[in-house]
Fold this protein.
Amino acid sequence: MIYLYIVVSVFPLLISYFICRFIIYFSHKKGLLDHPNEFRQHDTPTPYFGGIAIFVSMSIGFVILTFSMGFLFFIALIVVFSFFFIAGLIDDIYKLSSIPKLIIIIAASIISPIFLTTSIFNYLIIVCALIFFTNSFNLLDNIDGLSASTALAVFLALIIYRYYVFPLTAPIIIAFFAIAGFLILNLPKAKIFMGDTGSLLVGALCVIFTFLSLEHRNILNLKTICFFPLFWLPVYDTFSVIVVRLNAGKSVLIGGKDHFSHRLIKRGMSNLTVITILFFITLIAGTVSLFSPPLFSAEIFVFLIAASTSYELLTRQK
C-alpha cells in the first residue's frame, strides 16, 4: 500500500515537473511561445504546452495503477480524457476561432461519456456539464495559476469526501499531483502556461471525477446538489464576464482582461493573493457542502455567487 501511495503522489508530481522543464527549454529554443497582447495578463513570451505534461504524467500514473491493482477502468479513463487532450492540442497548434473550437469540444463531450455510464439521463447531463465546464475552465485560465489551483481545490475536496474508497481516490490523487507538478512552474510569474491542451483537460477531469464520486453515480440523487459549491468559481466567472462584456457592448467570444480575477486585481489584490483566496474559498466551501444536507449546500452555492456579486458592486470603481 505504501508503494501505491508513492505511485499516485510522488511519481506524477516529478514526471509532470520535469516534463514541464523540458517543454520550457524546447519551446524557447523553437519559438513556441504565447506572446503578450491586449487580451493577455503576462508581459513576456511564455511556453504554453503545459497541458502535455499534465496528461502524460497522469496517464503514466494510471497505467502503473492498472498493473498494480488490475483494474482496466484506469485505462478507460485515459481514453476518456484523451479526447479533451487532443481537442485542446489541436486548438493550441492551429489557434482555432471560437466556433471550430466549440465544435471539437462538443464532439469530445459527446463521445467520452459513452465509456462512463449506461444511463441515457446521466449521459445527457454529463455531456452538457462537459461542454459548459471545459469552456468555463478554459475561460478561467486567465491569470497565472488560477485554473490549476481551482482544480486542485476541487480534487482535494473530493479526496477528503471519498478518502475511504482508494480505487476511486487513486486516480484523483494522481491527477492532483500531476497538476501540482505543473503549478509549481505556473505560479506568478509563470514560466509555463497549460494552454487549451491543459484547460480543457482540467475541466473534463473536474466533471468526470465529480460524477464518479456521486452516490451510486446517480445524478438524480439529491446529494448531487452538494457538489455545486465546488464549481461556484467557474460558474460565476463565466456568467459575470458575459454580463460585463454585454454591458460594455463587446463580443462575448473575444477575450479580454475583464474576468473576475482581473477585476479583483484592479481592486488592489496581487495575482498570488487572488488565487490563494479563491483556492481556500473553493476548498472550504466545497468540502463543507459535501458533508452537508443538499439544502444547506444549495444555500452555500447561492451565498458564494451573491457574496461575490455584492462585493463587486460595493467596490465598483466609478
